[in-house]
Amino acid sequence: MKHFFIMNPAAGKGTKFHDLIDEIHKVCDRRQVYYAVHITERQGESTEFVRKMCQSSNEPMRFYACGGDGTIKEVASGLVGFNHAELGIIPMGTGNDFVRNFEHPEQFFNIDAQLDGETRKMDLLKYNDKYAVNLINTGFDCEVAKQVSLNRRSLFVPSKLAYTAGIVQKITQFDSAIVNGRVYIDGVPLKGDKFQACVFANGRFYGAGYRAAPAASFNDGIIDCCIIDKIPLMTFIKILGYYKAGTHLTEKGIPDVFAYKKCKNAELVFYRPTDISVDGEIERVKGKVTFSVAKDAVTLSTPKACQPISTDPVVLRAARRFQNKR
Asked: Which of 200, 191, 195 lies closest to 271 in space, CA to CA?
């Protein structure tokens, strides 16, 4: 097995990468494994590097995405179609939302445990002709994600507070931060054409821990969609705590502003050019975005302690109830 550690030094303000590189060298040299450290210099380079390495040899390979969810997305995109290669993750970003789908996330930093990782198949979320690992969103929370990108580069905003600060900073634009367009779930249109937020999920979390899709699984061949109606600011403030905790499907008495659907395919038809957040990275789109599942698209390697977190049966029952609404 060849082990490639792909480092995005821009992730998480880049404060811990020297320590990680030293640990990689120490452990891999001690264990006498074949390894290399590749430091990226631009967006998209990870995908290109992975494809080049996979095309050069049919030997078993494992590529560790050392960065945030955007880095994981790039590495995973390069692995599509190569059955002899695996995806590993060392979460070095600010939010690190994808690894929240696993137990004992601290073990992702254990290089010995990474080298001894066990594998499972993992879906990717396909949007048009590209791939995402975790989640795609648009609307108010996308505007917040844009602000978070600025906050991460600021010396005055701690990384752990970047998302909360982004919400506060964007509150003044709440009424204008809406999605104008139509949403189709397995070909069936949702009611209305103005939404506060639209989420299409493979994983459960985004925004540094907001559990937008509490019933999602990254290996079930299903997209979880959480759509929030256009709502007043005070209603948003009322539901925000439930939305962060992932209890917006199960809590009684909260405003009926959510549509939660599981599907094979979805479509968002925008009335005007709009920004979307793809695993935390902003893309400008116009016209139509189609969503589907690339089932078992990559092989994921994780430390043995890092099993996928289970789904509460109460949450699954609530998701089924939502499936039959509107």
From this structure: 195
